[in-house]
Design goal:
Radius of gyration: 24 Å
Strand content: 35-45%
Helix content: 10-25%
CATH superfamily of the largest domain: Glucose Permease (Domain IIA)
Shape: globular
Structural class: mainly beta
Number of strands: 18
CATH architecture of the largest domain: Distorted Sandwich
CATH topology of the largest domain: Glucose Permease (Domain IIA)
Length: 314
C-alpha cells in the first residue's frame, strides 16, 4: 500500500471542550486527550416567581439544568417544594462558555441571591488554594448544612406539619408530626443528612419505611415508600442526598406520597422551621481572600439589582 495514502493523524471531538488526537506510530496509533479552553462571559439574570421556579426561570431564558443548580445551592435553607411564594425573586451572576464565538453551555454560577418570603439568601462561589470550590454566605459560612430542608425535589405538598389535623382515613383529629410530599410513585427520596439506618422495614400502618439516626440528637423518618433504595437496610450508613427509597402508597396512604418526620432529642419538630446546626465557616487562612472575593462579587450583583430596580421604577 502506498504509504503516502496512510492515515497519519485523526482528531476527534467527543465533547465541546475535549479533543482526542490519534497519531500513527509505525503500525499502531497513540492517543492523547486535550482540553479546549473556552471564552468565558460573565452574565447577569433575574426572575420573579409567579407560579413556579421553573416557569419563572424559563421566562428569564434560563435552561432547566441551570435552574436545578440554582436550587441546589440554596437547598439547605429553602424548601423549594413548600416555601416558594409568588413575588419571590432570584438574581444570578454566572458564566456563559463560547468556542469560536459559538455558545456551548454554562460555566460556573459565581454568585446568587434568592429572596424567599422577603428574606434574602446570598451565596458566593469561592475557590481555595487547593482548587476546592464551594458556596458560602456573606459571613463566610458554608451553604452546606447538616440537613436538607426537603428530602424530595420539586414535588407538591399535600399536608403540612399540623398537630390538630383531621386524619383523612380515620376521620379523627390525630397529630400529624411531619410533612407529606405528594409526588408520583417512584420519585427518589433522599437522606436528609448523614447517618445510620435504625430501621428499614414494613408495617401495616407505615408501609415500607426508613428511620435514620443522625448522631445523638437527630432522627428522620420516611414513610409509605414503594421500595427501598439499593443496599438500604438496618445498620447501614448513608450520606446526605443518597437515595434511600422511592415514593409510594404503601400502608395507610390515600395516594402516593412521602411522609417525612424530623425529631430532635425525641421530640417532633416542624422540618420547615426547625433550627438546623450552623454551617461550617471558611477556614481562617482563607478568610481575608474570601472577603476580597465576596466584596467584589456581591458589589457587582448589587449593582445589577440596582439597575433592575431602577428600570422597574421607570
Amino acid at each position: 500500500m502506498d504509504q503516502k495514502k496512510q492515515l497519519s493523524r485523526l482528531i476527534y471531538q467527543p465533547k465541546p471542550l475535549e479533543l482526542v488526537t490519534f497519531e500513527r506510530e509505525l503500525t499502531s496509533f497513540n492517543s492523547s486527550l486535550s482540553r479546549i479552553e473556552p471564552e468565558r462571559d460573565i452574565v447577569f439574570n433575574y426572575g420573579i416567581i409567579q407560579q413556579s421556579l421553573f416557569l419563572s426561570s424559563q421566562k428569564a431564558g434560563l435552561q432547566d439544568a441551570l435552574t436545578m443548580r440554582l436550587a441546589q445551592i440554596f437547598q439547605w435553607d429553602i424548601d423549594f417544594v413548600l416555601d416558594i411564594r409568588p413575588g419571590d425573586s432570584f438574581f444570578l451572576m454566572y458564566e456563559e462558555l463560547f468556542v469560536e464565538n459559538e455558545f456551548i453551555g454554562y460555566g460556573e454560577i459565581l454568585a446568587a441571591e434568592f429572596i424567599n418570603q422577603d428574606k434574602s439568601y446570598v451565596a458566593i462561589l469561592y475557590e481555595d488554594n487547593n482548587g476546592s470550590k464551594d458556596f458560602y454566605n456573606l459571613k463566610g459560612e458554608s451553604m452546606r448544612k447538616a440537613f436538607l430542608r426537603a428530602p424530595v425535589e420539586f414535588s407538591r405538598i399535600s399536608s403540612s406539619f399540623n398537630l390538630k389535623r383531621r386524619h383523612p382515613l380515620h376521620k379523627t383529629i390525630k397529630a400529624h408530626r411531619g410533612i407529606d410530599y405528594a409526588a408520583p410513585t417512584g420519585t427518589p427520596i433522599l437522606a436528609a443528612g448523614d447517618g445510620k439506618i435504625k430501621t428499614a422495614s414494613r408495617t401495616r400502618a407505615n408501609g415500607r419505611y426508613v428511620v435514620i439516626q443522625h448522631g445523638q440528637q437527630f432522627v428522620t423518618k420516611y414513610l409509605h415508600l414503594s421500595k427501598f433504595g439499593r443496599g438500604i437496610k438496618s445498620g447501614k450508613t448513608v450520606k446526605q442526598g443518597q437515595i434511600i427509597g422511592y415514593v409510594g402508597q404503601t400502608g395507610y396512604a390515600t395516594g402516593p406520597h412521602l411522609h417525612y418526620e424530623f425529631l430532635v432529642n425525641g421530640v417532633h419538630k416542624n422540618p420547615r422551621t426547625v433550627q438546623l446546626p450552623k454551617a461550617m465557616p471558611i477556614r481562617k487562612r482563607d478568610k481575608k481572600n474570601f472577603e476580597e472575593v465576596s466584596s467584589k462579587v456581591s458589589m457587582l450583583l448589587e449593582n445589577y439589582k440596582g439597575q433592575i430596580n431602577l428600570a422597574a421604577a421607570g
